[in-house]
TrEMBL record:
The lineage of its organism: Bacteria, Pseudomonadati, Pseudomonadota, Gammaproteobacteria, Oceanospirillales. Coiled coil: none annotated. This is Toluene tolerance family protein. It comes from Marinomonas ushuaiensis DSM 15871. Keywords: Signal. The keyword Signal applies. PANTHER family: INTERMEMBRANE PHOSPHOLIPID TRANSPORT SYSTEM BINDING PROTEIN MLAC. It comes from the Bacteria. InterPro entries: MlaC/ttg2D (IPR008869), Tgt2/MlaC_sf (IPR042245). Pfam families: MlaC. Residues 1-22 form the signal peptide. The keyword tRNA processing does not apply.
Length: 206
């Protein structure tokens, strides 16, 4: 099950808190609805075609996610305190490795969803920070149910972007950040070696 969860979304980083929600939060829910609708029409409904064409699948997933995910910002959060130590070239490489691998992983897992059984739930209690949590239930064709909480954050431009994801209570933002920190320790704080280990680790989930 954890392998399936890891394949489903594998993106981004961090935090949320207590109560209350405003009408403005509906913008976050609407952004998630648009993304989910795109998954349904552009990916799941064409699964038979896309299963035979990995390159086309990756292109379609990228077209959807680039509208709602800033991979450079995601990579910065995953690298955590090590980001400042990385050279500009290493930052770019880390972001590229993360994006390319996650697109491949994410796309293959989307083909396992039931297009007719994806439900964006009404907003629940929210935190006082900038994030809004949007819950979506995804039914797998195999019969399993995934509850995914999308943590959305509004930008200065008024758009909503994905800042973290929690799948069946597993916080992937925190998990990824801890995983990269462990890789830094295992590679004697050598960023170049840690990036290589990070690439191999993500590739294992495809």
């Amino acid at each position: 099950m954890f392998k399936v969860l890891s394949k489903v979304f594998l993106v981004v980083a961090f935090f949320g808190a207590s109560l209350s929600w405003s009408q403005d939060d509906e913008g976050a829910r609407n952004a998630v609805i648009s993304m989910v609708d795109a998954f349904r029409t552009e990916i799941v409904e064409d699964k038979e075609i896309l299963a035979q064409d990995p390159k086309l699948l990756e292109e379609r997933v990228n077209a959807i996610l680039e509208k709602i995910i800033n991979f450079d910002d995601f990579s910065k959060k995953v690298m955590g305190k090590y980001y400042r130590r990385a050279s500009p070239e290493q930052r770019v490489r880390f972001a590229s490795v993360t994006k390319d691998t996650l697109l491949q992983t994410y796309g293959s897992s989307l083909l396992e969803l039931d297009a007719d059984r994806i439900n964006v739930l009404p907003l629940g209690p929210q935190g006082r920070g900038r994030e809004t949590k949007v819950d979506v239930d995804f039914q797998m064709e195999s019969g399993g149910l995934l509850n995914i909480t999308f943590h959305m954050q509004d930008t200065k431009e008024g758009d909503w972007v994905l800042s973290n994801i929690v799948i069946n209570n597993i916080n992937f933002g925190q998990t990824f950040r801890k995983q990269f920190a462990v890789m830094m320790e295992q590679n004697k704080n050598d960023i170049e070696s840690a990036i290589g280990a990070w690439q191999k680790s993500l590739a294992k989930k495809t």
